[in-house]
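Give me the fold.
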Amino acid sequence: MRRLFVALAATALVGLAPLGAFAQTTGAAAKPASVSTDRFSDAAIRQILAQRVDVDRQSRGMVVGVIDARGQRVIAHGLMSAGGKPVDGQTLFEIGSVTKALTSLLLADMVRRGEVGLEDPVAKHLPPGTVVPTRNGKAITLIDLATHTSGLPRLPTNMAMKDPLNPYADYTEAQLDAFLRDYALPRDIGATYQYSNLGLGLLGRALAYRAGGDYETVLRKRVLAPLGMTNTAIALSPAQAVRFSSGHNAALEVTPHWDLPSLAGAGALRSTADDLLKLLAAELGYADTSLNTAMADQLVPRRPAGGDVSVALGWHIWPTPDGDIVTHSGGTMGFQSFVSFNRKTGLGVVVLSNTAGVMGVDDIGLHLMAGRPLKTAPKSRVAVPLPAAAFDKLVGRYAMAPGVVMTIRRDGERMLGQLTGQPAVEIFAESPTTFFLKVVDAQLTFTVDAEGRGTAVTLHQNGQNTTAQRLADGAEPPPPPRPAKVATLSSAELDALAGRYALAPGVAITVTRKDQSLFAQITGQPAFEVFPESPTKVVWTVVPANATFTLGPDGKATSLTLHQGGRSLPAPRSP
């Protein structure tokens, strides 16, 4: 869980990531494909993995599986942990949201058997007394959950998280039931795609209850066993545990494995490249199984997901002139995964990494599937020694924005930077005036006077350069400026926006009213005044960001959407 070194960062959502947009390659700039003219050759793939693991330092160990009409093969590079065994086709990884594709295959199979219907209300297949929210007289159905159109949020807002590094571990079914009972849907059911781990977790729970068992047992009997996926599981045998890779954060530090007892259908599975190739062999028709009909039913595009991408039951589908590319990716605190296939070309690809790297693995998968360019790693930086006396001349407080100060200080041999309301992070010298961070891709450049004393510092992050002037001793930064145009709202209109809005597990925006002013505070950051542009929109002036509110029938806000840096993050209001 990376802490972003910015004043008002849209929180880094940890966990089970949805498919990235295909219409535009996101992240770092693209580089040409491998020097090999055949991007499918073992040598070309091994070169990509060596670059990503050894040079870019984006993973401790990676495995790629490829299947086509000629057969299947696995190419691996790296280790299960520092000094550990090499990864290979039998190494177990957390596959995160790729679990959703298997949960949805279970749904398709149960529909084929006549045990459930896609239009069944999910409440029909949950324990008696379970209350599921409705809207305008419509109930959430199984197909709404499988296509991320239920109106449920990405995650429930009552996740207390005793251990932020294993955020789902202590979330109980009783807590899930309490959330569902009190939650008000902010949009019509079936109307809009919004990726929801909660929704697929609830689907897995409902299917298991209908089948009369726990999720893992039902999935093993109905899906994993027919496919021969004997090394895909939640609870691992002793023999499997030995082959279960350590997970790593972006700094290549070991991070705990995840447990999802109440939302298992969203991302609890561990698997191997060899097992996932068995799934692709069946999907591509190279293996005949009892699930062939269910697989075909599962792949029917059901609802739009954005751009030209549609969502089927658990899979995302990207139409191309060479056939539909079916795909899903996943991520946990220490692993990343990508699984994709194209029935027309007969090609399937698996990419697994035991690290939550900044670059991800989707670009490798899409490069192999469709020739998309690979990402370029952030610039490699080397720390150099800096005398304490030289650094002490930079120590001070710098006004990054109204109400936001960057404090630079030294702790023994360590050099630290800290933004208002955020933890201190270590900074590393590249030169007497340039520094970089390792926890995020950010750099600092100091302006100094003739004596080498810092007079200003510029933060370089996310393509933006923010300069902060040094504050005189004891001085405070100026208050936030007021926009040129501010709407005048009544006390009732201001009160309608006040509340707590859940951005992610353990991260919320709290909006409060003080007299005739509104303030917004993201968890772990200071409160800043926000200024109304209308009864449903407020703007920050400390950073370029705004929030729009959705009002319910009673006139009170039911959700907000944070707009910043080209991203829009929905946040439902907590009860």
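Confidence is low (pLDDT under 50) at residues 1-37.
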